[in-house]
Amino acid sequence: MPYVAARDGRRNRSAANRAPAVPDRIDDLHGNSLGVLEVPHHMACGHASRRRYELDDPAQLRHAYERVLCEAAGCGEIEELINPMMLRRVWRDLHLPSRVREAWETRHPSLRRTVNRTNSGPGAGEVITRTVSAGPANRGFARRGRAQVARTATARTAARPGIAG
Questions:
Q1: Domain of life of the organism in this record (predicted)?
Q2: What distances in angstroms separate CA 98 from CA 54, 104, 133, one per listed residue?
Q3: E strands, the chain, where?
Q4: Is 103 domain-assigned?
Q5: Domain count of the fold of the chain
Q6: Left if phi > 0, otherwise alpha if psi is -120 to 50, otherwise beta: which for 46?
Q7: Which parts of the chain sit beneath pLDDT 70?
Q8: Domain hosting residue 33, numbered range
Q9: What is the pLDDT of residue 3?
Q10: Under DSSP, is residue 93 helix (H, G, I), strand (E, B) or coil?
Q11: For helices 58-71 and 98-107, angle between their N-to-C axes, nearest 10 degrees
Q12: How far apart are CA 94 and CA 90, in angstroms?
């Protein structure tokens, strides 16, 4: 069967193929910081219980914010669902694709400087800062603070006994 393009001019508008939605100002966000966050159906399919996240649970909060930031169809959805204070608090702990993280940090440089981890050593009030350069080949998820390991391939040159060359 031959391929027929959509006649109404639609393109593939999945989250993987569109630019991330980033509002102009973080202070325009007005989502709740307490209670339950229920994301729209297009962000999490299935029963309503799979779309509800307890904002009091840190793991559920991070998962909900990751889903909203990656799957939102527009800035209006982000403004309704995300709380600015909570976003700043969990920003470094979010596991986001690099294109989403870069889009947000480019538009809002204050997020790039957000650090929420402290040193538990002698100077407990000191802030830990890390610098990681993401090369152009890094197209997956942004990994902060991990050293890149260079892998080399070794060829086996052992000849099997009994076979003459």
A1: Bacteria
A2: 26, 10, 12
A3: 36-38, 52-54
A4: yes
A5: 1
A6: left
A7: 1-17, 114-165
A8: 26-112
A9: 45
A10: helix
A11: 90
A12: 6
Beta bridge partners of 141: 97
Residue 138 in domain: no
pLDDT attached to residue 119 = 42
Asked if residues 105 and 22 have their Cβ atoms less than 8 Å apart, the reply is no
What does the DSSP assignment read for 11-48?
A: ----TTTSPPP--S-GGG----SSSEEE--TTTS-SSG
Amino acid at 64: A
Pick from 140, 59, 116, 109: nearest CA to 67: 59
Q: Alpha-carbon distance 59 to 71, whole Å?
A: 18
Is 50 part of any domain? yes
Residue 160: the pLDDT is: 54
Q: Which helix (H) or strand (E) holds 105?
A: helix 98-107
Is 15 inside a domain boundary?
A: no
Q: Would you tell me how many other CB atoms lie within 10 Å of the CB of residue 95?
A: 13
For residue 52, what is the DSSP state?
Answer: E
How confident is the model at residue 97, as a pLDDT?
92
Handedness of CA 23, 27, 30, 34 (dihedral sign): positive
pLDDT value at residue 115: 55
